[in-house]
# Entry
Amino acid sequence: MTDYPIEEIFRRAKLGEMAVYPPKDEFGYNVFGADVYTKPKRFLLLDDIVLLPPQFTPERLEKGIELLREPLYTDVSTETVVGGFKVSMPVVCAAMGGTHIANLIGP
# Structure
């Protein structure tokens, strides 16, 4: 996993809340997160949906060798149980920020 954001993890661990949320006077007018100008990929790689650091993704190399390419999420079973519900891929739902910014961005 060459693009695992370890520096960003260290920065957030060091700065805490300041690294994740905008300053209070900018709250509701600033958005932190993904680059909105990057064209989305048709298929996500496992790196794009990774929930754990690479040392917790066993047998990934073997699966890549078997397929002769980087595994996609459709090539592996991501089935698990979250909160008593069987899901095919764990999902995290994050807040959008203040109501004002959510109204500007939302549908």
Remarks:
- Residues 61 and 70 are 9 Å apart (CA to CA).
- The chain has a mean pLDDT of 70.
